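**Reference record**
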Amino acid sequence: MTVEKQLFAAMDQHLLEDATPSDYFQAASRLPEFQEYPFNLLLALKKADQEPTHHPEGNVWNHTMLVVDQAASRRDQSSQPRAFMWAALLHDIGKPAATKRIRGKLTAYDHDKIGEKLSRQFLLTLDAPEAFIQQVADLVRFHMHVLYAAKNMPYGDMQALKSHTDPQEVALLGLCDRLGRTNADQALEEQNIALFLSKLMNKK
C-alpha cells in the first residue's frame, strides 16, 4: 500500500470512529504528505479566509474541523455514514478557488459546484469506489441547498437534488455545516432544516 493510500485509510478510520475527528486532522495536516496532491486541497483551506460576519471561527479549515466534529456526533443518524463523513470533510473544498472579495466582502459563489468536481478528483486519485465517490460528490454539490431554501435564494435545484441524493442526508450535512461555526444558534438552524425539508416535500 502506498503512503497516500495509507493516509487515506487512516483518515477514513478516524472519520468513522473518532468522537472528535478534528484532533486527528489537526495533527495529520502537519504531515509532509499534506503538501502533496490531493491532500494539499485540504491544506489550502487554512489559507482561505471567510467573511467574519458569517464565519467568526475564521478560515475554511477552522470551519471544516468544527463541521466534521458536528458530523461525528450525528453519523449514527446517517444512512450512509462513510459518504456523509467524507462529505463533511470535503464540503467546502471548492472555497479556496471560489473565494473573492466583492464590494469589500469575502464571497465564495459556486464553491459547491467547484467542490463537487474537486471532491470527485480527490477520491478518484485515491482509487475510492465509484459509487462512494458519487455519493460524496452529490452531497458536496447540494449542501448549500439548505441555505438556499431558508433564505429563499434562487440558486437551488431541488428537483436535481431529489433525483441525485437523499434529502435527509443533505439535511443532516446542512445542519452540521450551519452548526460548524462559532456562536451558532442550534434552535434556529434546526428550524432552517425543517423549512428545507418542508419545501422539498412540497416541490413537484
